[in-house]
Specification:
This protein is an alpha/beta fold and 397 residues long. The chain is built from 16 helices and 16 strands. The strands form two sheets. It has an eight-stranded mixed beta barrel, surrounded by four helices. Strands 13-12-11-16-15-14 form a six-stranded antiparallel β-sheet, covered by helices on one side. A hairpin with a 5-residue loop joins strand 1 and strand 2. It is elongated and about 90 Å long. The termini are far apart. 30% of the residues are buried. The chain binds ligand C2E and magnesium ion (2 copies). One magnesium ion binds next to strand 6.
Length: 397
Amino acid sequence: MAMQNITEKEIRLAIENDELVVYYQPQYDALTGKLMSAEALVRWVRDGEVILPGEFIPLAEQSNLIRDIDWYVLEKVCVFLRKELEQGVSLRIAVNFSRKHLDEENLISRLCQTVDKYSLPHELIEIELTESAIMQDISSIVEIVNEIRENGFNVAIDDFGSGLSSLSLVKDVSANVLKIDRSLLSGNCENEKERIVLESIFTFAHRLKLTTVAEGVETREQLGFLRTCDCRMIQGFLFARPMPEEDFAKLSSQPESAQTEDILLTQPQTSVTNLLMEAIFYKYPLVIMANLTRNSFYMMAYDNFSSKSCPSTGVFEELIEHGASTMHPDDKESFKRTFSINSLTDAYNRAEKSVTLVTRQMGDDGIYRRVETTDIFVKNPSVDDLLVITLCQNLED
Ligand code: C2E
Ligand code: MG
Ligand code: MG
């Protein structure tokens, strides 16, 4: 249906006729997959057809009509939360407040009155203000957000990163939630610059004690990357779309274990990493992390590899001496030469990705076995040091 000819009057009528309904889009804990909260999103159901806010909110925002819509949505959310509380379910719901409220008289008292009418704890309500609204009038917004927060409500900065984001905004406004706009999450986060920008946003947000919510998460790859950034909450089609109240009520009343059935989606990043390490150690009983710039190393796994035990951390050059000491006499020199710091650094500078050598190593039983040693060059983005990961594999038993 063409929506160009929607008029203000029709929207007013829609409010009066109860045609506006609230959909809920769940927000999940990024690590556990647990349902934590939801965002209330308005829909206009006209003759059985669902009209998205993009079709009528811009028009409503040209006048103060948008205020009526937002208060209407808040009221519906309160009615819903009251019912939920009576069922023993307590979830936080975020509602969108247009910039038009920023100069509304009695904003705070109306907010309190509306929520108190349903005897709801204020912390169950989160007010979302979009970044662009906040940018317009930063000094008055600081005061308003302070007041909303002092009254126990949560405040989120919505769509962060969608426009001209200002860091002073995040620093000066006492919001406690930062919603990172989906425009920053293009594709599967495979672009390095994009990842650096996102990592930096999450770092400063967490240092400022803001709860981070990533919006518009659609792929597992995005989720995987967001977890490495310690993103707290996920809102997006990957987990759930905005849904009618009845559907959300059903979802929120399910026991936790039924909420996400995919084990990988519920694995904390650290335990996924541990499982990965286990698989690597299965194939490579000796794994070493070394810093060539600082001539240091530590063992990540060391499983009865040679007849002489070795310190688990120390000086890299001594480690090479130690390795050579249990090697077949004909292999010692080439081993020491290949894995000296100088020749590894040369190989790195020639843009080689790794260095491999097969030698014979004496086991506990005094028998030589062929062992393949591979040094893989790795870079940590935050330091210039040259790092290698050494993987050793027995070629025969
Ligand atoms: P928003 O507040 O940033 O809400 C998030 C929007 O992103 C929602 O669009 C949601 O459906 C969409 N979204 C969520 N996950 C994904 C995803 O994985 N992929 C994609 N492509 N989209 C996703 P929706 O419901 O159409 O709302 C659009 C905007 O309209 C909202 O953006 C908000 O600014 C405004 N809006 C909605 N309800 C209200 C309201 O009650 N009051 C006010 N003032 N504005 C509202
Ligand atoms: Mg929003
Ligand atoms: Mg948003």
